[in-house]
Amino acid sequence: MGLGLFVSMVLAACSSDDASDPAPGGGCVQGLSLDCTSLYDPPIYPTLFEKVFKPTCASGVGTCHTGDAAKGGLIFENADTAYGLLLGTQGGKKRVLPGDAACSLLVERLESSEPTFRMPPGTSGLSRGERCAIEKWIANGAGRQ
User: Fold this and answer.
1) How many helices (H) and strands (E) would you count in the chain?
2) What is the tally of structural domains in the chain?
3) Closest to 119 in 3D by CA, of 72, 59, 49, 67
4) Which of 19, 52, 113, 119 is the most buried (most CB within 10 A)?
């Protein structure tokens, strides 16, 4: 697949992203297990931001969570701003509920099987190790460091 086609597919998928959409399952992720192998150990926010959030969600112009697109009001260009937006301390809705990975909107979107709701958009999503790291970070209190 050429880069232009890939970018077009991502942009099309991002156009339907709205953080206010209700979860298709109606809430918490059922059967979420934290008995998984995290790609990053320990799973801490600075590592997740630099290795998952920023490169996956905010690389290039017009991708879902850059300043020029800001889908659902979420921007992953600056670690401090992104952290505040994830936890709802800089306005908007909380996407992360510290200590409760299963009921965090971020995890609902990462684990969803509904293509129009799942993040990141596309057919592959994040690896299980990446999702596990995010889920463990949230379950451990979603600390800044």
Assistant:
1) 6, 0
2) 1
3) 72
4) 119
Q: Which domain holds residue 44?
A: 3-139
Nearest Cα neighbor of 139 from 64, 30, 43, 47 is: 43
At residue 69, φ and ψ (nearest 5 deg) are: -110, -50
Would you say the C-alpha torsion 129, 42, 63, 105 has a positive or negative sign?
positive
User: Per residue in 40-86, pLDDT tens?
Assistant: 999 999 999 999 999 999 987 667 898 888 888 899 999 999 999 99
Q: Does residue 102 lie in a domain region? A: yes
| Rounded distance between C-alpha atoms, residue 104 and residue 87, angstroms | 10
In a domain, 51, yes or no: yes
Closest to 47 in 3D by CA, of 144, 120, 118, 124? 144
Task: Evaluate whether residue 14 is within a structural domain.
Answer: yes
